[in-house]
Amino acid sequence: MPIDILMPALSPTMEEGTVTKWVKKVGDVVKSGDVIAEIETDKATMEVEAVDEGELVEILVPEGTEGVKVNAVIARIAGEGGAALAPPPVAAVAPVAAPAPASVPAAPIEVVTLADPDLPAGTEFVTMTVREALREAMAEEMRRDGDVFIMGEEVAEYQGAYKITQGLLQEFGDKRVIDTPITEHGFTGIAVGAAFGGLKPIVEFMTFNFAMQAIDQIINSAAKTLYMSGGQMGCPIVFRGPNGAAARVGAQHSQDYAAWYGMIPGLKVVMPYTAADAKGLLKAAIRDPNPVIFLENEILYGHSFEVPKLDDYVLPIGKARIHKAGKDVTLVSFGIGMTYAEKAAVELAGLGIDAEVIDLRTIRPMDIETVIASVKKTGRCVTIEEGWPQGSVGSEIAFQIQSNAFDYLDAPVARVTGKDVPMPYAANLEKLALPTVGEVVEAARAVTYR
Amino acid sequence: MAVRPVADKRPRAAGAAQSKSGVKPAKAAAGVNYQIAEFSKDEELKAYHDMLLIRRFEEKAGQLYGMGLIGGFCHLYIGQEAVVVGIQMCLREGQDQNTTSYRDHGHMLAAGMQARGVMAELTGRRGGYSGGKGGSMHMFSREKQFFGGHGIVAAQVPIGAGLAFANKYRGTDNVSVVYFGDGAANQGQVYETFNMAQLWKLPVIFVIENNRYAMGTSVSRSSAQTDFAKRGESFNIPGEQVDGMDVRAVKAASERATQWCRSGNGPYILEMQTYRYRGHSMSDPAKYRSKDEVQKMRDERDPIEQVRKRLVEKGWASEDDLKEIDKSVRAVVTEAADFAAADAEPDPSALWTDILL
Question: Does A208 touch chain B if contact means CB atoms closer than 8 Å?
Fold first, then answer.
């Protein structure tokens, strides 16, 4: 009985990959541990080793095939001696394909994302991933300013744990692209000292979860020293890396720090969603004379967006963007929260509710004016974020709205957040812990009384 | 058979450290390094003046605290003056960087900062180095390359190494000196910094001011390895134990350290064996040690008295000359205190400035 070889998941967030090479051919006998193929994910090219033994009888996915879904059958082995194992029960672990919401009509509703009104007429766009946009932003700024350097774990020779810094070592050398030991507290302090000394460090945290080891240096040293020195000691530094939940990485690797850092005077906090914003805002962050917390998201790294093809695309920090115009309810989100808001807006359109979607982009300083202006128009607001509810970004937005637009409100502000629990590991519980599109839709229906 | 720690047999200054340019770490026998630099008359007089300025300044600060003019925490440096003064004699003012903890008034004066600006910061006035917004623990001067003044124990250690990183990045031969105490020496980030400083050969001198007490906890009650010069051994950072009460020994050691760093050999550790006469802060009754212990140190080891005696013995200064120096120092301190008491508090609008650039 033949044994199926399935497309393996090679990272927590991998959904598909490219079969770059078959090392074994049809007719070869493979032994357990033999490399049978090479598979490229969005992070790395990995060798796939055989677990089962026997003759390779069939290759179903030829070399060079892109977009092969995890768990798809890519080859078959004839089991030896009839001791073939049954293929793993795929159905039980099948990727949780969200069933199409019943409320969405068959014909897709087009949600028009607004173009940046500040772009010159006739600007061309290129499609790129958030990952590529971040890399371009850093490379461009490093070309522009010799005082900019990047340090962090695996940023140089490994080419970045998430490939954000890929190629930077080759272009800029090891003086400016610096692998650190695993020592967040120490290297963050060293980077802060280098910034006090006039350099412009970019510190990559492999994830912001690890930056908790360094949070004293970020807050007590980087954020407060300008004030404590009566304005003498600027700290031009960017702290960046993935923030929030990836997929199935458990409670210690899934925390969203937007509200934490958003509270601290002396910091700017940026959390982009699109590749264009990631690029334009990271360039701005590197040029900013203040410490900037730049919160990325592992799941978004592989998402593609249109990015303006301009020589020097820099966006202002502290300015929200109206992602989609609407008149019935204001959905405010940022970072990966925007994926829920965007999908909810489509569903709501199907229900005849015209949502305005605001991408906050910067948590601190917060562009509350844009939110207030929208709420004055819609009279209703739902905030969406993956972080915890108490003291959330949404809490602050709700406070600002009740102080600045109370008379315009037709319903209390609703808040969709991650649940008030440490992130569980089990797939079903993790789904329950995170916000859902359905929750956003329900909240929007509640505030519009529909 | 008794097992003896291998480290005890090793040469004092980490044997594995290799010099790039013939500079050698000290090779003193086990124990404190009493090698001294021979001081000229001018050097003795300068050391005397600079140490006395710190002592009188700190005494005045203690008075002002008692009068309620200085609030919050106030950590005095009395007794430890020889450490910063001896090291500063080897530094290039305005080029080499100094970074220290919250016990920082002496370091600022030694770095060339004005007494009135420091005192006015202690009283929280607009003429203070931070405009009254930093306080005793947080003062800075870009002009004098003084980078604080840090209130979190040991947080200054990686920051000082980061300044050394900037020196190396820019290709200068400036040296960053970072001071911390025997208490801070037990913080994890110190060792994270030692590792990277040696890995990247950063020109940083780690000065461990061992004044024997981390607040109320004596070194022997807090530290498994009480020889702080050895704390860099596992990173191959050379270290010396130095008599921190003798300004000549301090200078001799810091000459070796600065030369080592300037020549591109990486970091260096100086454990300065010193003593603070006052409590940890103004609110510390210092019941963890005997009055006799303090008195003995003052009588036998006082850093200023040592210099005064030599000046008189060598005939380099008469009692009258010394009185003149004392008078001029007191005048500077009195002027600083008067200014600090009379200067206006910050304008209320300053509450909202200097948060972002």
Answer: no
N-to-C CA span, chain A: 56
- Residues, chain B, total? 357
Q: What is the pLDDT of residue A102?
A: 44
> By the CB < 8 Å criterion, does A307 face chain B?
no
Q: According to the 3-state scheme, what is the secondary structure of A179-225?
A: ECCCCHHHHHHHHHHHHHCCCEEEEECCCCCHHHHHHHHHHHHHHCH
Q: What is the pLDDT of residue B13?
A: 46
In this structure, of A390-399, B26-35, B168-177, the range with the lowest mean pLDDT score is B26-35
Tell me the C-alpha distance between A267 and A259, whole Å: 12
In the block, tokens 């050398």 appear at A173
A-facing residues of B in 141-180 (CB < 8 A) are 141-142, 147-152, 155, 157-167, 169, 176
- By residue count, chain A amounts to 450
Asked if B161 lies within 8 A of A193 by C-beta distance, the reply is: yes
Contact criterion met (CB < 8 Å) for A193 and B139 = no
**Nearest residue to A342 (alpha-carbon basis) of A283, A274, A255, A285:** A274
Q: Which residues of B touch A221 (CB under 8 A)?
A: 150, 152, 155, 159
Quick check: B356 and A188 CB within 8 A?
no
B6-12 contacts at long range (C-beta below 8 A, 24 or more positions apart): B7/B230, B7/B233, B10/B233, B12/B229, B12/B240, B12/B241
Query: Which residue from B minimizes the CA distance to A229?
Result: B130
**Helix (H) or strand (E) segment spanning residue A40:** strand A35-40
Q: What is the mean pLDDT of residues B21-50?
A: 80
Q: Which residues pair with A47 in a beta bridge?
A: A38
Interface of B with A in 62-81 (CB under 8 A): none
Evaluated on CA atoms B212, B215, B221, B227, the torsion sign reads negative
- Pick the catalytic residue from A136, A140, A253, A347: A253
Q: What is the mean pLDDT of chain A?
A: 91
Percent of chain B with pLDDT over 90: 87
Q: What's phi and psi for B12, nearest 5 deg? A: -55, -55
Q: Chain B 107-146, CB below 8 Å of chain A: which residues?
A: 128-135, 138-142
Chain B residues near residue A232 by CB distance under 8 angstroms: 130, 140-142
Give dist(CA A428, CA A423) in Å, integer: 11
Q: Which pair of tokens denotes residue A341?
A: 């808001």
Q: Is the dihedral of CA B305, B309, B315, B316 positive or negative?
A: negative
Put simply, whether B199 touches A (Cβ < 8 Å) is yes
The residues, ordered by sequence, that sit 6+ positions from B121 with a Cβ below 8 Å of its Cβ are B128, B129, B130, B132, B134, B135, B136, B139
Q: What angle, 0 to 180 degrees and rounded to 10, lies between the N-to-C axes of helices B41-66 and B303-313?
A: 140
Query: What pLDDT, in 10s, does the model give residues B248-257?
Result: 999 999 999 9
**A253 is an active site residue:** yes
Question: A396 an active-site residue?
Answer: no
B148, B167, B355: residue with CB nearest A227: B355
Among B151, B162, B357, beta carbon nearest to A193? B162
- How far does CA B245 lie from the centroid of its chain? 12
Residue A110 confidence (pLDDT) = 58
Q: Is the pLDDT assigned to residue A95 strictly greater than 90? A: no
The sign of the CA dihedral A323, A326, A331, A337 is negative
* ipTM confidence: 0.88
Instruction: Tell me if B166 and A193 make a contact (CB, 8 A cut-off).
Output: yes
CB A32 within 8 A of CB A52: yes
